[in-house]
Automatic annotation (TrEMBL):
Pfam families: MGH1-like_GH. The keyword Hydrolase applies. InterPro entries: 6-hairpin_glycosidase_sf (IPR008928), 6hp_glycosidase-like_sf (IPR012341), Glycoside_hydrolase_63 (IPR004888), MGH1-like_GH (IPR054491). This is Mannosylglycerate hydrolase MGH1-like glycoside hydrolase domain-containing protein. It comes from the Bacteria. Keywords: Glycosidase, Hydrolase.
Amino acid sequence: ERAPAYDPPPADPLHVGAVRVLEANWTGTSTVPSRGLYPHQWSWDSAFIAIGLRHLSPLRAQTELETLLTAQWADGRIPHIVFNPSVPLDAYFPSPDFWRSSTAGRAAGAPRTLQTSGIVQPPVHALAAWLVHRADPGLSRARGFLARVYPRLAAWHRYLLHRRDLGGGGLASVVHPWEQGMDNSPCWDAPLARVAPAPARSFRRADLDHGAAEDRPTDLDYGRYVRLAADYRDGAYRDGGGEFAVEDPAFNALLISSEHALARIARELGATGTARHARAERLTRVLSDRLWDPAAGLFSCRDVRGGGLIPERGVSGLVPLLLPGLPRETAAALVATACGPHFGLGGETRLPPSYDLLGEAFDPHRYWRGPAWFNTAWLLERGLRTQGETARADALRTAFLQVAGASGYAEYVDPFTGEACGATGFGWTAALTLDLLH
Ligand code: 9WN
């Protein structure tokens, strides 16, 4: 007797390709953003990656976050890089011998045996932990996943809301452009201009071994990044004294969104979560009071050292769309700005650019000075949905999936053409593709 005819379901090449990237970038305990350019574990990358991995393997998604959290410092900070000791020192700059976390970070409670950086990245982690839990609550409960991560996430938020309230108004400040994650955004040009760059000959850029120089930050930018990081290290990573301090809308909106997620986690663990939701709502009002720029129709960065809002439109200013408690008229103004001439969503651009299309510094290929990035596109997609803008969210989702696949899961793309820039096979691009496919 012949076996019945059987056609396996056609495999979606977009799904298969994304899975392949995540397999290739998985090290056994976490996922690298890119094998060549970024061969260690990055903090906000891992949060976005876990959000996608949960559809593939909830266990691996939990592990991704738990691995990162084992590198948390005693003061609550989650370092922006956890170094893989088996990767050669010269594969990435700045390397562990620059940060010297286990010695210079001792007073701040850096781990003794792991090597990490000493700065942080945006707090996407509690949001990621909640979404990972929801993918398989049974497994999560059986492993005690939330019970183990909750105290660490709570300490992380405490660090940001207390030690990092450098402006004194209730929001967290970043003390280095790498902390906000959009490294060379024109929003940093004015506050960075005050920083004396470290001499170019005092360091060697490993990024240029992998990326085209015209797609990367400049040597002058790097000189300033190195100076700020070295000063922070030389001050034993104590908070408060640095030359650079900025309140950023995306960083704070992610903190607020994660605070809502932490409230849900607390509830799942048997508490009420009410105080955390209330704090998130209060922080949403503080964000509006301190960073809303009514004339520009978006949120701006506040230069805490220079005093005042920075008059540049970055995609970061649209990310507060994520917040359910945003006043109606603010949300409407943000949608209008996203879809207007500065960002061209649903019109001129395929995906939202990282910076104002009409801004003087706009450059469609240079890193965070214009190209579109998939993590911010994912955040805006979620934000539009939160605000009830379903048709716009659907259109952005479709564009995301098309451009991600066609670009080989690129790190970032030309916002008009979708042409790939930077690395391909990039972790969060693949992971967030999986998330939007589900
Ligand atoms: C510095 C890893 C990281 C991302 C950042 C992105 C880039 C590092 C670099 O790569 O920054 O942290 O060397 O340029 O700007 O958002 O987390 O993917």
